[in-house]
Write a structure and sequence with these properties.
Number of strands: 10
Structural class: alpha+beta
Strand content: 5-15%
Strand order of the largest sheet: 1-4-5-8
CATH architecture of the largest domain: Up-down Bundle
Radius of gyration: 21 Å
Order of helices and strands: HHHHHHEEEEEEEEHEEHHHH
Distance between the termini: 31 Å
Bound molecules: flavin-adenine dinucleotide
Length: 380
């Protein structure tokens, strides 16, 4: 077992690190405060191959693996958690299209996603179907022409209103997971509209809104995979998505840890630098240890998923649960080390904490990760 990054992986990490430092970190506070979605910066990231990281190179993807994606998202997230996290969702959608759509759809859409002239959103959650996503009610009925007529609404959709393509899980059949299909719905489709932008605790550099379908006519050629495969496709996308979200937690936590280290060397109380108090030294040691443990789990899950290992699902759920819990705790402790200053917007800590909080909720809550893990443990 070799834990060192190879030459290519180190180069990819360095590229993402300098992009985050130059193009993201200096603006992250303003994007958060002014709720700016930095599409121009995302397109510059795309020009470096970061929009279709684990998509094959046939239609412009970078053809890298899950581990490289995790390395990239950790680095980008150190610059801006919220923007990196949106990019991770775009990458997940691109992979789903590459993996499950037919050649015509792949050829038409993937090059646009690679350059980010099209942005993508993932639409599973509904107002009445969150953790129990298989109970979704958005319905697609086949017209005589073969087109699908879609009615219903999706909730909490990242990128909604700005994204150009929406991967929408719809009910085409009976109740339950087997009655769900996946449609690609384009932004200019008549009958597609958006709710108002949600006001959120964090993730403010990307819009979140409802996506509403009223007799929305979608060509049959926009079906991804076979009818009835939608739930499986959605879950397969999320396996990788969960690794990426955990990696984004590592990046935010790493930035917070770094800030705490620096601050402990600068701030004095009781006539001594904070770094001389053993209570804080131990806190820092625990934060670094937990970050390293979470990173190892993310790398393990990425390697497992890449290899198609039978227990990859469990590893992804474990990495998501542990990585996002630890990421949040580390950032929160870094805020504590900054005392009252950590609570001020002059420092990045409060933003990182707000941004990382939602990682415990989305792409399957951490309770649902425990459901997945325990189900495997107790399987007969
Ligand atoms: C900022 C943001 C962005 C998002 N982006 C997207 C997106 O782009 N696309 C998308 O499809 N969705 C998105 N989501 C939705 C997100 O995935 C859901 O919020 C999440 O899956 C939880 O669903 P819910 O909010 O309906 O909570 P609920 O499912 O109602 O859960 C409420 C609570 O009950 C717990 N719970 C539920 N069932 C169980 C159980 N069986 N055992 C134990 N505990 C349980 C949950 O863990 C949670 O704590 C986003 C959410 C947010 C906040």
């Amino acid at each position: 077992m070799d834990f060192a990054l190879d030459q290519d992986q180190s180069a990819i990490r360095d590229l993402a690190r300098s992009f985050a430092a130059d193009e993201m970190a200096p603006h992250a506070a303003a994007w958060d405060a002014e709720e700016i979605f930095p599409v121009d910066v995302l397109r510059r990231a795309a020009s470096l191959g970061l929009a279709t990281i684990y998509v094959g190179d046939e239609y412009g993807g970078s053809g890298l693996g899950r581990l490289e994606a995790a390395i990239i998202f950790e680095e980008l997230s150190a610059g801006c958690v919220s923007t990196a996290a949106y990019l991770s969702i775009h990458n997940m959608c691109a992979w789903m299209i590459d993996q499950f759509a037919d050649d015509a759809l792949r050829a038409r859409i993937l090059p646009e996603l690679a350059s980010m002239s099209y942005l993508a959103s993932y639409c599973l959650t509904e107002p009445g179907a969150g953790s129990d996503a298989a109970s979704l009610r958005t319905r697609a009925v086949k017209a005589e022409t073969g087109d699908f007529i879609v009615n219903g609404a999706k909730a909490f959709i990242s990128g909604a209103g700005v994204s150009d393509v929406y991967l929408v899980m719809v009910r085409t059949g009976d109740e339950g997971a087997g009655g769900i299909s996946c449609l690609l719905i384009e932004k200019d489709t008549p009958g597609l509209s958006f709710g108002s932008r949600e006001r959120k605790m964090g993730w403010n550099s990307q819009p979140t809104a409802q996506v509403i379908f009223e007799d929305c006519r979608v060509p049959a050629s926009n079906l991804i995979g076979a009818e009835g495969d939608g739930f499986k496709i959605a879950m397969k996308g999320l396996d990788g998505g969960r690794i990426n979200i955990a990696a984004c937690s590592l990046g935010g936590a790493g930035a917070a840890l770094q800030a705490a280290q620096t601050y402990m060397g600068e701030r004095s109380q009781f006539g001594r630098k904070l770094e001389n108090f053993q209570a804080l030294q131990f806190k820092l040691a625990d934060m670094a240890t937990h970050l390293e443990a979470a990173r190892l789990m993310v790398y393990r899950a990425a390697t497992s998923l890449q290899a198609g290992a039978p227990d990859a699902l469990t590893h992804c759920a474990m990495a998501k649960r542990f990585g996002t819990d630890q990421g949040f705790e580390i950032a929160n402790e870094a805020l504590q080390i900054h005392g009252g200053y950590g609570y001020l917007k002059d420092f990045p800590l409060e933003r990182i904490v707000r941004d990382l909080r939602v990682h415990k909720i989305l792409e399957g809550t951490n309770e649902i990760m425990r459901v997945i893990i325990s189900r495997q443990l107790l399987a007969k």
